[in-house]
Structures are given as structure tokens and as C-alpha cells.
Amino acid sequence: MVALPDDSTATGPGIEADQRSGQADPDGKFRRQASAFRDVIAPGHERFPPEKGRYVLYVCATCPWAHRALIMVKLKGLEEFVDVVWLHWELGEKGWYFKEVDNSPAKDPYYGFTYLREFYFRANPDYDKRFTVPMLWDRKLETIVNNESSEIIRILNTAFNELLPADKAAIDVYPEDLRPEIDEINEWVYNTVNNGVYKTGFAQTQEAYDENVYPLFASLERLETILSDGREFLLGSRLTEADIRLYVTIIRFDAAYFTLFRCNIKMIRYEFPHLQNWLMHLYYDFPTVFKETTFLEQLKKGYSGVQKIELVPAGPVPLMMPRE
Ligand SMILES: N[C@@H](CCC(=O)N[C@@H](CS)C(=O)NCC(=O)O)C(=O)O
């Protein structure tokens, strides 16, 4: 693990010293904490109206939740409205930090901060929860608008529509008529797949591991069956939020979760042909949205560090299957 620069402004109350430890509760089970900042950007909003150049999205390559939000920025063509700033892919002792490697600058370009936690303390000096990405920051009020990816993707889906060209404004990944279906699939995919890989990977007892690894694979089988009728996207012919939320987990599966989170009953590439076709379609046919937002080498190193295995596994080879 690299030594991190000491920075006394990067400390706060109630946080364990090493952000990489303590992922599981004392009973050996991993429970994801509820996000603390839950505001929205919306036209006419008293505090957070849509405005060009005002908001910044903080992400890192390792994190699937941040990846969801990044995909929305690209899909909706929001680069001019929401600046994307990258933290280094490694979760350090004090959480996510900047380091001039790969996509990350040496320091935050707006505040000169070294750690993500510094934003959390700027927003709330008494903040005592985890310092997570994605984090949507408002430069005007100097606070966090929202740090819950499921909400950030909905904000990005609509908030800037009146400022966008018509073709981008028309893109809607949570369309009214599909909402019940999207909500239904999101619920079990979140519990057993998106968060299921974490509950499996961070389990500290055999019981906690078994409780999660089998439901995870049962859900992958269920997704495989859904896609087996040859549909283009999860809910039919339209790309929706459900695809985006699933993509960020499936693209990490063979490269990281299979080995590093012990999700190794089957590999996606060899044993789930329909899921693999759906993944290849998104990755190769919408490259600016999916492929170019995916950094497999970086995220594999990121997950290796979180597991404190300081060795990066050699496989799978290749990291993503070529098309031919
Ligand atoms: N519910 C949050 C979860 C975000 C989250 O847990 N992000 C992880 C990275 S994958 C993180 O930043 N962890 C840092 C930590 O827990 O210290 C969301 O979906 O936005």
C-alpha cells in the first residue's frame, strides 16, 4: 500500500483510522450504509437549479456506483454542464484520494484537496459516515448535492434537459411507461447482484458468504433467461436505467469479482452466453458511453487493494473478450 501524505484537514469525528478495514459488521456480514446527502438538481429548484459549469461529479475507476453516474454524463452529453473529476483508483487509508496517475490529477482542481473526505467535511464539519463516490458537488454553495448513485443517475437523466440539444434531452432511461418494470428489476438486481457481489466479497464468515453467493448466481441465471429471447436490452428494445445499473457490475465480474470477491461458481464470458452478448453489445456498439468509461486495468488494481491482497491476479486473459 502506498504511504499517503498526512493532512490534518482530512480528519473528522467518528471515522475509523483505516478506510479499507471495517467493511463488514461484527457478525461478518457487509451492510451498505445509507447515503447522507439526498438533494436534487431541478429546474426552478430553490438551492440547486441547473446551471452550466456549477456542478462537479467526483468518480473513480474502481467504483461501479460512480460508473453509473459517469455513464449518464456521457449518454446525455452533459460534459459541458457537469465537470467530471477523477480520484485515484486505490482506496487509501483515509479513503479515496488524488494522485497524478491515470485519470486522476495530483490534487482537486477546484480546491486543491488531496482527499475526498475534505469535501465531506467542507459540506458538514460533523460528518461521521463513509466518504463515498460518486459525489455530486455544488461549487456555488460549496456543498454536496447528492452522494447516492441511484438518485444521481435520475438527476442527470432530467435536470439539464432544458439546456440540452433536443436529441440529448429526449434520451430518457427512466421512461414513465417502463417505471414499474424498471423498479421491479432494480430491486432484486441491486440486492443480489450489484450489492450481492459486495456482500459475497466482504463476507467474513462462511455463513455470510454462502448466504450471498448462491442468490447472486441464481439472479445471474434469471438474467440469462430474460435475455435468452434475443432482446437487445434488459427490458426490450430501449436502453434503460436497468441496463446501466447491471452493466457496471457485469463488466467488473470476470475481471474482478470472480477472483477477488470469490464469486467464482461461473464466469460470465464462458457460461452466460446471453449476458455476455448483451455486455458485448453495450461495450462495443456504444463505445463512448460504455467502453470509454470502463477502465479494467485500473479497477482490477483497485479491487486488489481493497481486499488487501497486494497482488493483482494475472487473469482473466484477455480482460474483455474481443469481438472476433
Ligand atoms: N449507495 C452508494 C454507495 C457508494 C459506495 O459505497 N461507494 C464506494 C466505492 S465502490 C466507496 O466510495 N467506498 C468508500 C468507503 O466506503 O470508504 C451509492 O450507490 O452511491
UniProtKB/TrEMBL annotation:
InterPro entries linked: Glutathione-S-Trfase_C-like, Glutathione-S-Trfase_C_sf, Glutathione_S-Trfase, Glutathione_S-Trfase_N, GST_Omega-like_C, GST_Omega/GSH, Thioredoxin-like_sf
CDD domains for the chain: GST_C_Omega_like
Record's protein name: Glutathione S-transferase
Pfam families: GST_C_2, GST_N_2
Domain of life: Eukaryota
Sequence ranges assigned to domain GST C-terminal in this UniProt record: 175-303
Region described as Disordered: spans on this chain: 1-28
